[in-house]
Amino acid sequence: MNRREMMKTSSAALLTGIASIDTSASAAETRSPENVERWSVFELVLDGPKDGNPFLDTWLKATFRIGAREMVIDGFYDGEGVFKVRFMPDALGEWTYITDSNMASLKGKKGKFKTITPGAGNHGPVRVRDVYHFGYSDGTPYFPFGTTCYAWVHQSEELQEETLATLKTSPFNKLRMCIFPKWYQYNHRDPSRFPFPRQNQTNDYSRFNPDYFQHIEKRILDLQALGVEADLILFHPYDHWGFQEMPAEVDDRYLRYVIARFAAYRNVWWSLANEYDLMRKKNTADWDRFAEIVTQTDPYGHLRSIHYSKAPYDYSRVWCTHAGVQDYAFDKAASWRETYRKPLIFDEMMYEGNINSRWGNLSGAEMTRRFWLCIVAGAYGGHGETYVSETDIENDKAVLWWSHGGKLKGTSPARIAFLKKILDEAETVGDGQIGLTELQMPYYPSAKRNRDEAFLFYLDFHQPLYYTFPLPETGKYRADVIDPWAMTLTPIAGEFSGKTRLTLSATPYMAVRFMRVKIK
Amino acid sequence: MNRREMMKTSSAALLTGIASIDTSASAAETRSPENVERWSVFELVLDGPKDGNPFLDTWLKATFRIGAREMVIDGFYDGEGVFKVRFMPDALGEWTYITDSNMASLKGKKGKFKTITPGAGNHGPVRVRDVYHFGYSDGTPYFPFGTTCYAWVHQSEELQEETLATLKTSPFNKLRMCIFPKWYQYNHRDPSRFPFPRQNQTNDYSRFNPDYFQHIEKRILDLQALGVEADLILFHPYDHWGFQEMPAEVDDRYLRYVIARFAAYRNVWWSLANEYDLMRKKNTADWDRFAEIVTQTDPYGHLRSIHYSKAPYDYSRVWCTHAGVQDYAFDKAASWRETYRKPLIFDEMMYEGNINSRWGNLSGAEMTRRFWLCIVAGAYGGHGETYVSETDIENDKAVLWWSHGGKLKGTSPARIAFLKKILDEAETVGDGQIGLTELQMPYYPSAKRNRDEAFLFYLDFHQPLYYTFPLPETGKYRADVIDPWAMTLTPIAGEFSGKTRLTLSATPYMAVRFMRVKIK
Asked: Of A184, A270, B447, B502, which is the most exposed, with the fewest CB atoms less than 10 Å away?
């Protein structure tokens, strides 16, 4: 990338909340301090040596200080002699910084900037809250409703834009996506960019292709602008180019490089792998080392997990912030949560679609059902979609949301949006600060409560003529019968307290919501 | 019971294949030998002491011989001075017998009879076959399609007759039923008979009420006449009268008495308990002892199992002939079968109905689905039904098939009958002697084959546009698309071999059957 392109990127970044300071023109002092939103990016851009191999030969870091606090942030080489340090300030006030490096031209650069109140839509990074749940750093509740477009950043620019347009009107606020390109069924093309210089089917692991990572950064920021968390998959086994079997030191360098580049973006989550247990060349020690690198190198403590195929990971391990399971035993959610004492996301529970693979042809009704099962178990679900037409397959033109992005065709997203709305409404009844806690019901493992403010029951394939709901004696509640498929919400006349017998429709897949009547 | 009544019972019994010989009039020799169908009952009736307590004071047994074989069969006291020995001959030819007893009047009674070819409908007891399956003793395949009417023999005579009339036209060929009366929701009445003399809420455990057991025998034979196996539940925790906490020696005497009375009926299965782990007064040693008594006392080796609530039993234990699980993890069926190396019946997978309990309000569609899941996993399912109306509940008149019997109201039985017909048809394609074995498919754990003669795939909530079915290269197959709910079977034109791609309806809950084209 040349300087002109870099400036273009910086401008684009500024639009999405990055304050970029190019100190390359000055000597040891930066230009006047700038204002940076809390949880946005302060970016220091420095000119340095471009000879030799700066990826290996040059190191750069900066120490950022506010009050008594100090954070040491790794910089990275962005090609063409440009070095950067990206920093996400988490506290309001004036920060100062000073760089250090093994190269004189990058050493001792000083400056300061001010962190200001974030603008609308900037709630900061998502954190674990109330053991089993999530919330943004500013206290706003965050209920993950994820989807997957594993290889969307490696598709045509048009398709990427279409994916963003789709996400804009979808209920999804988290996207699982791979950093490396993907080789798998319906994914048998080279990407337009490679993470390492590559010639004659050989990767030059001694260097990175900054262009590759700049592009991903742009897409992370595009997601950020849409309020979508980027659940970045650091390794995966769907490979054709060697990235699943790189030398250990390259793995580690890649991780540090990715963290130095991406960690300052507030909407980043780290997923060590998709289906880690299918990566035959990696062993437990490798995964332990990766977990340690991510945990110790990311200065901001972004959310961290790992995803398996057959061999469930022990999510009670300290480095994991949450469990991201590939499983369909929704009735086990409660006991798994208790075991892990962490939030539980069913990150892959098959995909709505019609393809010739068991994992890719769920009905929309079943995908909808799975989201409800997750939510009432106090867990969270992950969506994905794999619809194809025979014509598209014949013409090698199949675009599957699951991997490529594009448009959503299924029947579940509208229902997932409906469920998300119900959760959001329930939350507003509470104090909006505490997230949800759950109540295990005697029969239905399906009640979710917000400090006795709201209860949500999902009846799944049960069709009782009536059911006695165990409400608290201490409050009065309004009741609504919910049809998750028809997306209707029908109030039941009256106010209810204690054991409440409601006559129901005696049809399956219904839900009932109780909301506490506010005391005026 | 007086003699006249007893004769009446004997006559009724004769109609259903019991040859009863009353030797009480003669001295040491019986009357002329009679013909008894193989696997029917030869019954020896003897007069003995009625003073004191013959249940405790008198023992009787008979040794039956054919060729070099010898079987020693326990007799039992049937009240009013009448002693009986019931015997189910399993070999054709002439049998002799001689009694032994601690009472002179019952000792040394001799006789003989001839076992003849069984009539239509008498296939002998069901046995385990091909590790995971069942067959009648004469080689006829037996696919258990069970239902439950736990307390049907303790209802009014009219209701019992209605239950039998319902079973006659139902698909069900196995019935789980309790020997002891039942006390539970919708079951809060004393039975008309008690197993022990009972006064002032106290059971006289030193005696049995023969009348009670005679009635159950009549019902076992009624089921036999309908081709229904009686899966007899020997203990259960839904008790109000003390039968779940009898002294150990009473438990054991009860078991021996029941076995002496019932074991000669070819359609008997032993289920040690329903929800054994809810019987708080029993411990593992008790269950081990019961298993040993049943295994060692039943001369015919009827099928034996046990049923749990929460604590899965280790069905790999030698005494169990098959696993009878209460679970809904149908995807675990294949691995459980492998662990146990025995047939696997999901004996309780909730009930179709509409009651206010999670286990009793499955939709008919879900019950149908569960049967399909069992079958294509190489396991078997169990039906039950719990429909009520609010009026019936208010008038205390609710009749629930699950416990009382009566009429079936649900939508699943017709679909279960449809599935059973498909299995029966598949079997007739094979040699009819080997039962079914299964093939685990790479994606669908859902293919069932009969030595490559027939394959059955169930797509559950999957809705592929097409699917490539891995048929053997060695045969040619006809294909039918099955709609398990609409109960339709639509042939697909052509003959198929090897990897077979079929375009499907892309709707969920469909099935596909392949039947080998016969070589003329």
From this structure: A184
